[in-house]
Amino acid sequence: MNTQPPITITRLDLQRLERLLDSLETYGPAAEALEAELSRAQVVGHDEVPPGVVTMNSRVHCREEGSGKDYHLTLVYPQDAGGEGQVSILAPVGCALLGLSVGQHIDWPAPGGKTLRLTLLDVEYQPEAAGAYAH
């Protein structure tokens, strides 16, 4: 049974992420998970993506339902990760956030075998909505 929420990504993000996958020296579980997400996504033009959808370089506000803890995360490419709140698209939570819409939730595998449920509360910044995407 598929419990994953439907996702939407832009054609430009799809092209860039496919190039990223092609460039990887080792193809591990993170790459396989990202490939699976890309294969099930609805692909739209950068001018057609709704503002409440997580795209690459989006800043999001989400809440972990078990603890009520809020997170402010920015979804970035691996080479841009490392700053506070920045999460790589190749991290499990990064891959899971891509394409989510406000109000949807994901189950995030945490250390120690626990699963955390994250609910997307807001897309605080989306490059496409801000007109800040590069062709």
Automatic annotation (TrEMBL):
Sections of the chain in a coiled coil: none
Keyword annotations from UniProtKB, A to Z: Kinase, Transferase
Database matches in InterPro entries: GreA/GreB_C_sf, Rnk_N, Tscrpt_elong_fac_GreA/B_C, Tscrpt_elong_fac_GreA/B_fam
Pfam family, one: Rnk_N
Domain Transcription elongation factor GreA/GreB C-terminal: 51-125
Keyword Ribonucleoprotein annotated: no
Protein name as it appears in the record: Nucleoside diphosphate kinase regulator
Native source organism of the sequence: Pseudomonas mangiferae
